[in-house]
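hi support,

uploading two proteins for the ticket. first:
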Amino acid sequence: MSEGFRIRQHWKRADSDDVARARGIAVSNISDVMARMNGAPAGLRPFHRGGALSGPAFTVRCRPGDNLMLHKALLMAQPGDVIVVDAGGALDNAIMGELMLARAVQAQVAGVVINGAIRDTAAIAEQDVPVFAAGVNHRGPYKDGPGEIGYAISLGGMVVEPGDLIVGDDDGVISIPAATAREVLDRAEAKHAAEMQQLEQTLSGNYDGAWIDAALKAGGCSIDEQ
């Protein structure tokens, strides 16, 4: 086995019930209950027409500017997988464009996340298959390798293991460890319910901001009342 140029073919994927459930939960709520420590880089933005992303991670690591392993991933991915590509965040060459997205659509993947550049954004914007990327560049990729499939990758500071639950919306992308996904989603739903209650109080004019003064006092803030 050659680290850096290898392919793993089998791993356990996130539970299908968790995948379906996560599709209706905001990434911001998930992020909050994961201590705001596990999000993808802020520059990773959606380029598709619209719709949430949810599915088990199919992990790909590419040499920056090279997409050989992504081509292989499109032959291997199962329906419902989210292909997550660590391309080092480099924006000098597009890792994917319209033609490869067409193959992703035919493979029935749930979406593609690339920490790197894409191109053919007008065509991608007409698709409902979620596509997240770090930027755009018209220059095409090389196809020489090396790279890896089916091993842990990192998108910025977010570690993604194959099979982890990937969730994305207009606010960005987050990875939830498959083993704790149900617990995380429980907390995220509770967080959302609390926020909806707070919003209702705000709209009815009954918002209680006492916690703000308490936080200022606890922090030793000086208030001049003159």
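and the second one:
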Amino acid sequence: MSATRGSKPAEPATVPAAGDAILVYDGVCLLCSRWVRFVLAHDRARRFRFASMQSANGRALLRAHGLDPDDPNSLLLLERGHASTDSEAILRVLAGFGGAWRLAGVLRLVPRMMRDPAYRWLARNRYRWFGRSDACWLPAPEHAARFLD
């Protein structure tokens, strides 16, 4: 999937619409796949779409926002032309559910310089603690249209 030396990286196969909120996640990480299932279950407005970091679209989106697709230790959320990573991405997703989920915003009182190192510590250890799959998790047919690849 990676580009060969001197070649141009592949363009995403699907260009997301400007209004889409897209969550780029690690598709082989069992914790990350559980997070996606959690988002699918709570996103009643169906505002979030998904791309795994292992897909052509996910890799292109990571590169476009300065993240290394071969060292996937960050969650990327794209919404309304704004990119968020790490703990901020999680808080924005929770707020996007609306209702009582917006109360999670109180966690922004904890400075990001404290939240993000905790997020990165979890991200570095996620395979050891939660496991890793040999292939990306596949959504149920009723959710397939929400995935870019």
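thanks. also noticed: The CA atoms of residues 27 and 67 lie 16 Å apart.
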